[in-house]
Design a protein that fits this description.
With 739 residues, this protein is mainly beta. It is built from one helix and 55 strands.
Length: 739
């Protein structure tokens, strides 16, 4: 929506503001209500003495920093026309004036609210309905109004606003709170609320009803809604996420949960974690193929009890041919340490022809043949930070030079289809649970998030940010094509920009609840556009990465209530899970005298040196992939563009792909050489790993030195090649930040 230089902000109670000698400003007209399809509004104010008036883009700007001027013929009546409105919404502008005689300027803002539509206030319940535990003695009702308003409450319906004597408390006339005392066990009580717009004076003539429920007993039951895999389902992947979804949010410190998984009399080892209304079980190892499992979830949340949930499922036989079947001995182990095996010269393999890496005996399969298949110009995986594989490792998404996206069978390497809808940088992301579902936006971001069924090629809108952000000029939300959402797909951390990529701010979206959790304004903090943004795997943090300012790479709590600086620059990096459930930022520091590769545990701010990259005078470039969420404590590293050492020799880290343990003195597991000769950005391998570290996709021109003769190759590993580390239950974020 275009607002010239005046932007949408939170509003305050309209009043006339003056100090000892500053201009006395009053609103004449323009508040509305205006028609919902209005494309132009005119704001009019008056001053008691001749003055010049201006409009700001947010509250608190001094007169001299305002650049939008009211027009006036006599210095007393002032007018500002705002045109080009698109889908207008209730907005507050801020006015200050300068006395023409003595130059005195306004010391405070005059809020100027404008209202569209009926002018009546629309309310939304934020908190208070419950059900609440039976032993509570008071409940706070919290409501939000779409414009500045006064709210009153009654215990009976039909009372006019003027006769209601119970007033809500408010600071900004947008969020309203009322505390109820003397409540009783087992009560279900309705409260009746009416509102008065402080912008138009209109009073609602109908009650807004808020129902408060108090449990009758001391526990209450939180109902189970669904399980994944579904109840009594069969033929699911050995790596399908396992979880139960409930009717309430259970993310709290006061939990005592049990999630057991067993086959016959044998229990499966794994980790329990909670995200929102879900209880997850992450097996330590992929489940045994062609096996029946029984799952059970029980426990308490605060003073309530989870509905006992029992379900069973059978894993697939896992006998899909994948080009590497039967290529590994039972005792296979990856080569560990700073291995300096010479990079071998190997002929480019044919499509779907297995190749054993001469140095490390791993199985490599060429997935694409861009010269004879639809991908035009080249076939590549998008980036190391992006997950190329779907939820059950059966499909992989491939990009092409012309901006189209293509789906391949990850087992047979067969081309399946070109996607209809997604194009170029569109934030393409696989759903972490549903194998046939992708999410995407318009090219270079947009205000809509689509869900695409790749089997039917049909799309639907699952996120709409039009008129929901505190920047009227917002036209796109994206990570700048390098980030992703939390490991469970719930929290999305993105940057907000205008139609011409003007940087506006950061936002976090809760996809499950379709709520904007928090926003952060660039202009308010004197900051410009970051290189990229991403959500941490746990969903606790949005990480934004800048160069050339004091923020560098900074992790913001998802509601922007706190932040921690991770690095002084924007470098190649990724975010990964640690065995304790915390998030790790993994990167290289080329300004360090050893060119150290390091990690920062975000929840604690603790930094760990992993290894030095300046080896015998050589320099190496790195990409990191932390997408193996089912192998917490490991990242995938791909290197390229290495310079020779002081004696002209190759060093251990050159032109290879390896697994890196996230701990002091880490293990390094050598996986393969990628055979991509450096010739510009497209030839970078950008190796990316799947969720359980059994598949790796990378790009390579395979010794051709071509800038665009690039295909995608796949490394398939045995399930235990990258070993599972001992894990702990996820720690609570508040406990870590406030020990």
């Amino acid at each position: 929506m275009k607002r010239t230089a005046c932007f949408l902000t939170f509003s305050f109670m309209m009043t006339t503001l003056l100090s000892a000698s500053e201009p006395n400003i009053s609103i004449i007209s323009g508040q509305g209500p205006h028609p919902e399809d209005a494309t132009q509004v005119t704001l009019q104010v008056a001053t008691d003495n001749p003055a010049d008036c201006r409009c700001s883009n947010s509250p608190g700007y001094p007169y001299g920093a305002m650049y939008t001027n009211f027009t006036s013929s006599d210095g007393r009546s002032h007018s500002l026309t705002i045109d080009g409105l698109y889908a207008p919404e209730n907005t507050t502008y801020y006015v200050r004036c300068k006395d023409r005689a003595d130059g005195t300027t306004s010391a405070t803002d005059l809020p100027f609210p404008t209202i569209f539509g009926s002018g009546e206030v629309t309310l939304q319940t934020i908190a208070g309905e419950g059900p609440h535990p039976s032993d509570v003695t008071e409940v706070e009702l919290v409501l939000h109004s779409d414009q500045i308003a006064e709210l009153r409450l009654s215990h009976s319906p039909g009372n006019p606003f003027g006769s209601m004597y119970l007033h809500f408390d408010t600071v900004d006339n947008r969020e309203h709170r009322y505390r109820i005392n003397g409540i009783y066990r087992g009560e279900t009580t309705q409260y009746y609320i009416r509102s008065k717009s402080l912008a138009t004076g209109l009073i609602t003539e109908q009650d807004y009803v808020l129902t408060v429920v108090i449990d009758r007993d001391g526990t209450g039951i939180i109902a189970n809604l669904e399980t994944v895999p579904n109840h009594q389902s069969s033929s699911v992947s050995t790596t399908t996420p396992i979880f139960a979804t409930y009717s309430e949010t259970i993310e709290t410190e006061e939990t005592d949960l049990q999630f057991t998984l067993q086959t016959g009399e044998t229990s499966v080892d794994g980790t329990i974690r909670v995200t929102g209304d879900r209880v997850y079980f992450d097996p330590t190892e992929p489940l045994t193929p062609n096996t029946s499992f029984l799952a059970q979830v029980t426990g308490t949340v605060a003073s309530k009890t989870l509905e006992e949930t029992t379900f069973q499922f059978t894993t697939t036989a896992n006998n899909e041919p994948n080009g590497c079947n039967g290529t590994y001995p039972d005792n296979f182990e990856l080569v560990s340490g700073f291995d300096e095996s010479t990079i071998p010269l190997v002929a480019k393999p044919a499509k779907n022809e297995p190749l054993s890496d001469p140095s490390y005996d791993t199985c490599i399969v060429r997935l694409t043949d861009h010269q004879n298949e639809p991908p035009s110009g080249f076939a590549r995986v998008e980036y190391s930070r992006k997950q190329a594989y779907n939820a059950d490792n059966t499909l992989i998404v491939i990009s092409s030079y012309d901006g189209f996206w293509h789906i391949y069978d990850a087992n047979t390497a067969a081309f399946i289809k070109t996607l209809d809808g997604p194009a170029t940088d569109c934030e393409l992301k696989w759903d972490p649970v549903r194998p046939n579902t992708l999410f995407y936006t318009a090219p270079f971001g947009g205000l809509l998030v689509y869900e695409l069924d790749v089997e039917t090629n049909t799309a639907s809108v699952v996120g709409n940010f039009e008129n929901r952000l505190p920047w009227p000029a917002a036209r796109r939300v994206w990570t700048k094509a390098e980030g992703t959402f939390s490991a469970d797909g719930r929290y999305w951390g993105m940057q907000v920009e205008g139609a011409n990529f003007e940087p506006l701010g950061l936002m976090v979206w809760d996809k499950e609840l379709d709520e904007i959790v928090g926003t952060w304004d660039f202009a308010q903090h004197g900051i410009g556009r970051p290189d990229h943004t991403s959500m941490s795997p746990s969903g606790d943090y949005l990480v934004a990465s800048w160069d050339g300012n004091d923020y560098g790479t900074t992790a913001f709590r998802r509601d922007f209530s706190s932040q921690v600086k991770l690095h002084h620059k924007s470098e190649h990096s990724d975010l990964a899970l640690l065995p304790n459930g915390h998030d790790a930022y993994v990167a290289v520091d080329y300004q360090h005298n050893q060119g150290e590769v390091f990690m920062v545990e975000i929840q604690t701010g603790h930094k760990t040196h992993l290894f030095a990259s300046y080896i015998k005078g050589s320099v190496t470039a790195f990409h990191f992939s932390g997408k193996a969420y089912q192998r917490p404590g490991w990242v995938l590293v791909s290197t390229y563009g290495g310079s020779p050492s002081n004696d002209g020799s190759q060093v251990w880290a050159h032109e290879k792909i390896f697994a890196l343990e996230l701990t002091a003195n880490p293990r390094i597991l050598n996986i393969a050489h990628h055979h991509s000769l450096p010739n510009g950005y497209w030839t970078e391998p950008h190796a990316t790993v799947n969720r359980d570290f059994t598949r790796i996709a990378f790009n390579s021109n395979w010794e051709a030195a071509s800038e665009t003769d690039i295909d995608v190759y796949q490394i398939i590993l045995p399930a235990a090649a990258v070993p599972a580390l001992a894990v702990e239950n996820f720690k609570d974020l508040e406990e870590d930040l406030n020990p």
